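Consider the following assembly input.
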Amino acid sequence: MNVLQQKQRELTEFRRRLLFAAFFAFLLSGLLFARLFHLQVNLHEHYSSRAESNRISLAPIVPNRGNITDRNGVILARNYSAFTLEITPDQTLDLDAAIDALSALIDIQPKDKRRFRRLLKEAKTFESIPIRTRLTDEEVARFTARRHLFPGVDIKARLFRQYPKNALAAHAIGYISRINDDDMDWIKREAASRPDRNINYKGGTLIGKVGLEKQYEFELHGVTGHEQIEVDAAGRAVRVLSHTAPVPGNNLVLTLDSALQEMAEAAFGQRRGALVALDPRDGAVLALVSNPAFDPNLFVDGIRLDDWDELNGNPDKPMLNRAIHSAYPPGSTFKPLMALAALSQGRRSASHTIADPGFFSFGGRVFMDDKVGGHGSVDMFKSIVVSCNTYYYQLANELGIDAIARFMREIGLGMRTDIDIPGENEGVLPSPEWKARRFRDREQQKWYAGETISVGIGQGYNAYTPLQMAHALANVLNHGRVFPPHLVDAVVDAGTGETRKVSVSATRQTPLEPEHVDFIKRAMAGVNREGTGARAFAGASYDSGGKTGTAQVYSLKGQRYAGKNKERLRDHSWFVAFAPLEAPRIVVAVLVENGGFGSTSAAPIARQVFDYYLLGRRIDGSAPEDAAGAEEGDAAALLLPSPPGAPNHAVLP
Amino acid sequence: MPSYLKRQASRVRAHLDMPLFVIVLLLMGVGLVTVYSATYSTGMGRLDNQIVNMLIAFVSMLVVARAAPQKIMRFALPLYLFSLALLIGVALFGVSVNGSKRWLSLGFVRIQPSEIMKVAMPLMLAWFFHKYESELTRRHFVIAACILFAPIFLILKQPDLGTSLLIGAAGFFVIFFAGLSWKIMLGMGAFAAAALPFFWNMALHDYQRRRVLTLLNPASDPLGAGYHIIQSTIAIGSGGPFGKGWMNGTQTHLEFIPEKHTDFIFAVFSEEWGLAGNITLLVLFFLLTARGLAIAFAAPTLFSRLLAAAISLISFIYAFVNMGMVSGILPVVGIPLPFISYGGTALVTLAVGIGILMSIHTHRTRIEK
């Protein structure tokens, strides 16, 4: 083959391959172009927002929580600013070494370390976590001088919740504590159901757990503000892009009178029990006592284990809100309501008189009055003043359980009062329907006529909270108009100062005849003048009405009540009352657990509260010790044994 | 003196290929502007260095352009053997950095022999085919394959997959342009495809496998190996059609882009200049290649033809692989973007390559005569 031809052929092939290479390069350029077009045009918005979220970090600014004050402006919950020593784990090389070194400088207790470890597990590593709270000025100075030795450790000012009156009204106010998973769910639900309210807990760690702090959480919390910060890849802040100030939470003004509350709590002393004082005209709660109480300040920056153990393990159950959560048999305080039921339903006139032989027999069973031989001839007025059991055994039997249950429900028993704190118990209003719901066993579901009879004197399955008893009495005094009890009088906008009154309106209306109500008021006034409340109200400069009650904890089965009974088996002592007689401004329900007779334990507390509220003064409130003479009819001595598991006693031994 | 300078200047001009010169000048301009943006926060030192690097590169280019291809050809065998010896030296006495042994320490300076091989390989093969031009048989292609694989094997062992692939590509281009039959190439392609799983399991290091896997799904490891790709694609995508403007790239200036002045500089450029800038850059690289291929088209000898074609194509491949890696269609390999990335070695090597193209073009007529 010709060399020249061969060369020419090779050259042609080479040049063909050059063209191929150029085409190849063009193809690859096209591929790159396609990729870049895809990224920069099709996906441009996606990547723009990713670049923005890379660069912009939202730093939340936690709003100031609203204050809580009583009706006279006394502060019950507020915030104060204090210095905390905080560690950012990400920026600290050796946590343990750093904490040890800090301990030499600042008092760090094992409990502080434990809390730090716990928070460390929950938090993100770039968040700063407090190791010590409430530093003294001296400690702040000591650390500041050596700050350069501690990378990732800094002092910050944080707001703390403070309850300046400590345990005062703790059950009503509640407390705040760290947000847990349940709270997160709650926040999410709330945020979803109220999109207009801008509920945002970013950066916040605390939330209301019980009481008003929980009920009004979303009023008190405020709206979280934020700062848009430009950050670099290492997370360092470069500059602030925008600042949205937080909106402080609203303040709550309560209907509660803290002085009255303080006095009422003091009146209980060491005794367990509860007191609810209402203004019957609008349902405003004037005092809400559950004794013993707890110090809500303990919870604010994480309760210490030993404090928690003490609160939880205490047999007196200081965390239990007896006023709204514990239901007790109302005992004889139920009798005026029974009388009113009979009047309202036209089943008996007030003048109807019975002869009380000292017992009532029914279906082969004998129900005893406590006064041997009976009270003689008893009309409705006397039945209340002397607390005659026989009268109500008969009356209950005559009315029947359905009529009783219908009336009691109308005046607010056996259902939640809708007070504005969570955890309310609806109590037990016994009826055949209730029993069918309550029990599974066919036999147990059956209602026996004998059970109606013990219901008549407030025993049996009956169980109501002190709040319900005060509420029911208030409803009666209002001639059947029902005002839901409320602790908050007004919500005050912290920014504008604008005050939003809580609207007060009757939610239900069951007309009661004025003359029937007047009769009951007069009969209850008789109790305080000449009956079981006379001793406690001796010498009062105002007219009042009341009714004692004794709720059986333990059936004595025919034995006489005796001092040797274990303290916690003794009966609960009740007193419900109102004053002044003509135009009542205050209603109370007092319950003293295992207090024995209502007249000795509970009534004197009510007297002190009335004196203070109506006259503005304290009396030396030592209760008359020996009042046994006034105790007629109060202890429901001989009764059926309590059905198993039936009455919702709060404290059963 | 003025006349001496004038004479020198005219000689320089005589060996300058204007289209190539303008393209390289434009690319280096883009490089300077981008390096400035990527490094200004850490001071002007890098920029000054890069200006010096570019001056050295230009001088090297002009010097090489003045040398006749025959002279260049004389360097082929010695340079190849020299760099092969250095690679063996690396294998025996090399310095390990980041787990791979790529450097040879000469006391005062550390050199990376694989860089020299990038130039030596196409030179050597072009020389080899030129020398046996009139008697080429299959046997010569086998020998060429040996010339190619000996250094590649050594570089793979370092391990440095990226460089060995690029040197492999450079050598392969020479062999391809020398007329390797299509049948054999197809056969080799098929063989390579079949061997891929074996290669994957046996030959690749963990970190290399991870890079490939990361490419397929960067989100699988957003803070580790995938981080670079994720951040560079965010930079490119957020640049949009017209970019955020020079010095305004947030991904760049807030340090989200790793290696932003070297291997990932394309992300910086893309973010600030957008698709418009990228098209310009693609066009420049394509024109550079096209001009080089045109020079090869007109080159008079087999040596100059093969060398010019290989240099043109390999410089395009460099650009393609770098941009492909940064935009997330190729695995991460440590290749700078030609003329743009900060760094002297690659810049000078490339400039020498362009100088060779110029030499080939400006000396073509004399040979023909």
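Residues 18-368 of chain B form one domain. Ask yourself how this observation constrains the way the partners meet.
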